Amino acid sequence: MIKNILCFGDSNTWGLNPVTGGRFDESIRWTSQLATKLGSGFNIIEAGQPNRTLVNHPPYNGSLSGVSYLKPYLEEYALDVIIIALGTNDLKKRFNLAPECIALGLNNLINDICDFYSLNNQHDEKPKIIILSPAFVRCRGPYKHVYEGAECKNVALKEQFKNIAQNKKIIFIDLQSLVHVSLEDGIHICESQHQVIAKTLYDVVKK
Q1: pLDDT classification of 115: cutoffs 50, 70, 90
Q2: What is the mean pLDDT of residues 108-123?
Q3: How confident is the model over 37-76, as pLDDT tens digits?
Q4: Among 3.40.50.1110, 3.90.950.10, 2.40.50.140, 3.40.50.300, what is the CATH number of 3-206?
Q5: What string of H, E and C letters represents the secondary structure of the chain?
Q6: Which of 49, 72, 89, 158 has its CA 20 to 30 A from that of 151?
């Protein structure tokens, strides 16, 4: 039976190229690389969306909050694994959010997932959840002022996410210790870092 894996994230899941501003092709995106590594027994659902947040509905970009956009995927697919890779956009200066507030958004999202399966009774087992902490955001390049003040929140946000994963007994992967953001914009990861994420997730999923 094919296993369905939902990759639910922001622009680094979507595959934004920090050099061109376009999208990396399927040979580079970590989601696509993960699909290739896992093979025919797995279906990878790419659900990355630039500007997606855990807490806010960003102005100028429509309603991109994770909570709003997750439910349709839960309804459409019989999911075995959900990979959540969010939190970077919540660090934007205009939101003025403490790491604890961003983490509360993650906690609420996980609760929403659990509630959905409990209320709808769609599976004997709920899907396994994997949390990716955001990579270490740098204030540089075109996003320097957008993310002003974010650098001092990086470590605290990671620890908050880790604590939630421990409390919920779900898998946590610390991207701050595994990958680094590009020197071009301080937010997005380059081709080689997509390879690292794909390899790390492959090892975790196969285990």
Answers
A1: confident
A2: 82
A3: 999 999 999 999 999 999 865 443 434 555 667 888 998 9
A4: 3.40.50.1110
A5: CCEEEEEEECHHHHCECCCCCCECCCCCCHHHHHHHHHCCCEEEEEEECCCCECCCCCCCCCCCEHHHHHHHHHHHCCCCEEEEECCCHHHCHHHCCCHHHHHHHHHHHHHHHHHHHHHHCCCCCCCEEEEECCCCCCCCHHHCCCCCCCHHHHHHHHHHHHHHHHHHCCEEECHHHCCCCCCCCCCCCCHHHHHHHHHHHHHHHHC
A6: 49
